[in-house]
Amino acid sequence: MTTTERPADSDDLRSPAGNPLGFGRMLRKEDARFLRGHGRYVDDVVLPGMLHGAILRSPYAHARILSVDTTAADAHPGVKAVITGKTLEGLNLAWMPTLSGDVTAVLATDKVRFQGQEVAFVIADDEYTARDALELVDVEYEPLPAVVDARHALDPDAPVIRDDLDGRTDNHIYDWEAGDAEACEAAFARADVVVAEDMIYPRVHPAPMETCGSVAYMDKVTGKLTVWTTTQAPHAHRTVYALVAGLPEHKIQIISPDIGGGFGNKVGIYPGYVLSIVGSIVTGAPVKWMEDRSENLMSTSFARDYHMHGEIAATKDGKILALRVNVLADHGAFNGVAQPTKFPAGFFHVFTGSYDYPAAHCKVTAVYTNKALGGVAYACSFRITEAVYLVERMVDCLAFELKMDPAELRMKNLLRPEQFPYTSPTGWVYDSGDYPRALAEAMRIAGYDELRKEQAERRAAAARPGADPSAPLMGIGLSFFTEAVGAGPRKHMDILGLGMADGCELRLHPTGKAQLRLSVQTQGQGHETTFAQIVSHVIGIPPEDIEVLHGDTDNTPFGLGTYGSRSTPVSGAAAAVAAQRVKEKARIVAAAALECSVEDLEWEHGRWYVRGDPESAKTMAELAMAAHSALELPEGVEGHLDASVVYDPPNLTYPFGAYICVVDVDPQTGAVKVRRFIAVDDCGPRINPMIVEGQVHGGLADGVGMALMEVIAFDSDGNNLGGSFMDYLLPTSMECPSWELGMTVTPSPHHPIGVKGVGESATVGSPAAVVNAVLDALGLRHADMPFTPAMTWRAMQGRPMRPDLAIE
Amino acid sequence: MRISVRVNGDEASGDVEPRLLLVHYLRQTLGLTGTHWGCDTSNCGACTVLLDGVPVKSCTVLAVMADGHAVTTVEGLATSDGLDPVQEGFMQEHGLQCGFCTPGMMLTARALLDRDPDPDEATIREAISGNLCRCTGYENIVRAIRWAAGHPAAEVAKEASL
């Protein structure tokens, strides 16, 4: 199916407003406010007497702070307070824990450890005044040599970045392994072909259109702290504030109103958030802090920065035997990765991918450098983006060496449907899949054989004497991905000790209208629509009659938030289970109302009726009223129709897909044009196909961005070279082709409604397809992304550049 | 400096600092928060408004430069007859997700349709190339603008009133 043929709605039944009573294409409920400019983002929050904060940041990547003099800033008209590391030390707040067991500075006290690090916070009547006064804070620095290249972070003479940590004598964070090294060794020993390759997944940034910020107000009379903040995880933030600052958790309310994109950037807690809270405590007034774009790019969670050495072993006819990889992970100056505690490298060890081979091993070594912290962000599914890039590049490298068509090589090695549930060599249990069908569907939409034929003709033409030297070089790239999303089972997964189960509450009002309260937080994914459809699917009331509430910790149950494509797999399951419980309770009410036993009742979408007598029936709306009425219910059955659920997923879900990219490279400039992009996704049943397609579109643009232009590089002094949108390039409408989508549907066997999650699929799967296409065009086995014209040109000349450093 | 600006048809006047950016004048002075701020460098287009019908990035226009001119923001797109076809198109074709780029994107689209009522895909892509979107991959934005081109204002208003 292509996008030009709209998918048929899965539920034929329609509500009075014309919406599907369940799954199907439905216009978004949240659009009404956004279209009119009535969205309410954090920067739109204005409170009486509100002050504005601005952060002074380090110009150096590594320097000792000798002194901070705030005299002139304090004296500036309109300035209400200037907070420094010293102020915070007095409050025991100069440092805070990261989500990975490290600490990070709120405001630097001893040293600055990356360019853009927070040094002082000025609070003033308005933002202009606050920023003026930043100029008046006098900081004396003693610059120190910076660790910029991760590959030299462990050199014996490398400066020690984290001398704040007792006994620390190097920049090593951890070594972590998964898989079976010995089995790998044996497989490599009997292989006909071994291919090794070094590759960098460079540092990139999620760069949501809305930057990060917060408005904090500590009401000293009631003792209540209210924080409007750009967070994907409001409940987790509340608990962390309680733990860090010792504030009573029942007196903290976190509100994440409309969020202008997250992509992982808004999971962590940034110093600015804490400073707005401290600022409100110090001044007694509400304090707003909104970072500017440079602050966002230079100081908040970056993504990737994995230096990978992969080795793949195979027979001469292309059967893969083993894959192993060594990773050098650049975590920046503090280990601030946001991921489940037991997995320091995230889910990278799902790197065996979508293929059937018995042996795999990975080792990850993480180091400190003088760069911003982060690492898991940008729709990466906890590092599965890096994992998929690694395996999909290695498979293409193998195809290159074997001179085999990469589609044929993939088809030969893909897991077969009968192997599911499949236990991977590194211990993951893939729930369901039909991989060959998805790849075949992508090849069908692409017209793969014709594309290869066209490519052969173009190459033949280019080889003829007198050929046009400007004729584009055509490349075709494939990737196949398997994701592991919906973190996660409580016994395996937690963040800061908080298990990753999600709460959900469904309440039907007497008139049959409903409210659904979620712990997850939309950043554009359309939860207000999709979750209403999930409930409608189960109990048959119109989705327009279901109000979805989220983003306010005082009014929603606990849960860890939206990232790692976990909303539908975890909270979606919670909503479905809550609806199922309401449906079953309604059955008891119906039996009482119809004076029959519950066993005599049959369900028809939206109503219970007496078997054999369809006219004796009660709709959900009637049952909601009955449940609130004086109707006598069986002993032990309370009135009302509601349910409260905590969903602990039994396993992750494993969406997958097959992507094909076609590029044309200008041989005279190195410019890459994406001609076509075909994406076949299998995320299980599609609750709202329109929203699913939108999620895929966005992720594909991310992939084009990372493959062709996005990178945060540094010079030898540690200066950030991607600190504005003039330097950190995002794809525009001109670089994106018209996406060609397809689908297969393989339900998850363990999810209550079979759905798998899709938010990050395309971001995970697409970069490798674009890179494989560019390298196919150039006839090269490997060169590192992003393929800017300069990078591509240098690769074509046989002098590839490192993308991450502005030094040769 | 004292300025007088016609914003969405209404006259606004008052004293502003000469350095005040138009985006801040709209958001903070007039409370029109539908115009968003995204980058400082005129790259992202979240702050796009129409100045005498022409799209400008209000983060790089001073409020004083708008003195004596007409500004249209997203709050001024809909009329008493209903949504602008561009707004309706963005809803029908799922041309928005997080909604942050949407006001600027729609105003750029409105200006395009005012000068070219029936643009093809390439024209649309070029017209919106100064407006970044991180969510949609632009596909449905292009479709939304095509939808608007196919549904002139009178028709949308008539359907809305039915």
What is the annotated CATH architecture of the largest domain in chain A? 2-Layer Sandwich
Put simply, the count of helices of chain B is 6
Largest sheet of chain B: 5 strands, mixed
Record field, number of beta strands of chain A: 34
CATH architecture term of the largest domain in chain B: Orthogonal Bundle
Which residue ranges of chain A are poorly predicted, with pLDDT under 50 across at least 5 consecutive positions? Answer: 1-10
Shape of chain A: globular
The number of distinct structural domains of chain A comes to 3
- Placed side by side, the strands forming the largest sheet of chain B appear as 2-1-5-3-4
User: What's the main sheet of chain A like?
Assistant: 7 strands, mixed
Structure, explained:
The complex is a heterodimer of chains A (808) and B (162). Chain A is of the alpha+beta class. Chain A has three domains: 31-39 and 501-647, 2-Layer Sandwich (Aldehyde Oxidoreductase, domain 4), CATH 3.30.365; 42-144 and 211-259 and 266-299, Aldehyde oxidase/xanthine dehydrogenase, a/b hammerhead (Aldehyde Oxidoreductase, domain 3, Alpha-Beta Complex); 302-487 and 652-796, Aldehyde oxidase/xanthine dehydrogenase, molybdopterin binding domain (Aldehyde Oxidoreductase, domain 4, 2-Layer Sandwich). Helix content of chain A is 27%, strand content 24%. In chain A, helix 13 runs parallel beside helix 14 (567-594). The two termini of chain A are 47 Å apart. Chain B is α+β, with helices and mostly antiparallel strands and 162 residues long. Chain B folds into two domains: 2-76, Beta-grasp domain (Ubiquitin-like (UB roll), Roll), CATH 3.10.20; 85-161, DNA polymerase, domain 1, CATH 1.10.150.120. Chain B has helices at residues 22-29, 85-92, 102-115, 121-127, 139-150, 153-161; strands spanning 2-7, 10-15, 48-51, 54-57, 70-72. Chain B has a five-stranded mixed β-sheet with strand order 2-1-5-3-4, covered by helices on one side. In chain B, a hairpin with a 2-residue loop joins strand 3 and strand 4 (54-57). Chain B is globular. Chain B starts with a strand and ends with a helix. The mean pLDDT of chain B is 95.
